[in-house]
Design a protein that fits this description.
Elements lengths: L6 H4 E2 L18 E2 L5 H19 L4 H10 L4 E3 L7 H6 L9 H14 L4 E6 L4 H21 L7 E3 L11 H5 L3 E7 L10 E7 L10 E7 L6 H18 L4 H4 L16
Helix pairs in contact: 3-6, 6-8
């Protein structure tokens, strides 16, 4: 009687296997004939499914708001021109502007909130799980440090279906000196819940991506939220002190350790 070897016996190990201890990248997966081993193939399919699920997931703004409130972070809920997930994915331009009703409400709130040094947007972006899991542990230390430096903060805006450029509307609407948006990044194979943070000094309609600083891959397996919070606070303080962000701030990042932690000049 002929016997078939076990599938594991058919898979040949890769000589680079030892390198897998140093990276989560898909390297040294081995071979089974001319193909990947079954375990590696199934792991790839699972990662791909998780990435697709993350993109299609919908943020519950009330639940995220409750998490912010539990961390003693004031918040408000607003909307963009994108009213559902399909529209958001097909029409990026609609996620770059507040809905007219939200714009009117924010203008009215600005008179009550007063001038602020920082305004923050939190959104699902392309990964609702990232916003749900990593917003509070990232944002809470940042706000605590800035409050200790005398900064005035507007309530955090929870805005489903937002794009990065939405933060540029916060300058004209709320009169803030610096804006910050936290939103889920495009999932990768192995990183379905990565949070990104983008800050802009002097947000306004003329700003471009060259005017922003980004801290990305915020998640426990990437850049831990506590480390990301420290880096963000350094960048925000440096941006306020130097009066610039984006490409003009990167070369001055070392100055973020300057002991002068003053809020932006009025």
């Amino acid at each position: 009687m002929l016997s078939c070897p076990e599938p594991s016996a058919l898979a040949r190990p890769d000589p680079w296997t030892a390198l897998r201890a140093h990276t989560p990248a898909r390297i040294a997966l081995g071979r089974a004939g001319g193909s990947l081993p079954t375990a590696a193939r199934l792991d790839f399919l699972l990662a791909h499914a998780r990435a697709r699920d993350a993109v299609q997931a919908t943020l519950d703004p009330r639940r995220l708001g409750e998490a912010l409130a539990a961390a003693r972070i004031p918040y408000a809920i607003a909307a963009t021109g994108a009213t559902d997930r399909s529209t958001y994915l097909a029409r990026p331009d609609l996620g770059r502007r507040f809905a007219e009703a939200s714009r009117r409400e924010l203008s009215a709130h600005a008179q009550v909130w007063g001038a602020c040094d920082l305004a923050v947007i939190v959104s699902d972006g392309l990964s609702a799980p990232a916003a749900e899991r990593h917003t509070v542990p990232t944002l809470q230390p940042v706000l605590h440090r800035l409050a200790g430096a005398g900064w005035r903060m507007a309530p955090v805006l929870v805005v489903p279906f937002a794009r990065v450029k939405l933060q540029d509307e916060l300058g004209p609407l709320l009169g803030c000196r610096v804006s910050l948006v936290l939103l889920g990044e495009r999932p990768g194979l192995g990183a379905p819940d990565s949070l990104g943070a983008y800050l802009t000094f002097g947000p306004g309609p003329g700003r471009t991506d060259a005017d922003r600083n980004c801290v990305s891959n915020i998640r426990p397996e990437g850049l831990p939220p506590a480390t990301a919070a420290e880096r963000l606070a350094d960048l925000l303080l440096a941006a306020a002190r130097l009066g610039r962000s984006g490409t003009g701030l990167k070369a001055d990042l070392a100055l973020a350790d300057d002991p002068v932690l003053s809020p932006p000049a009025p």
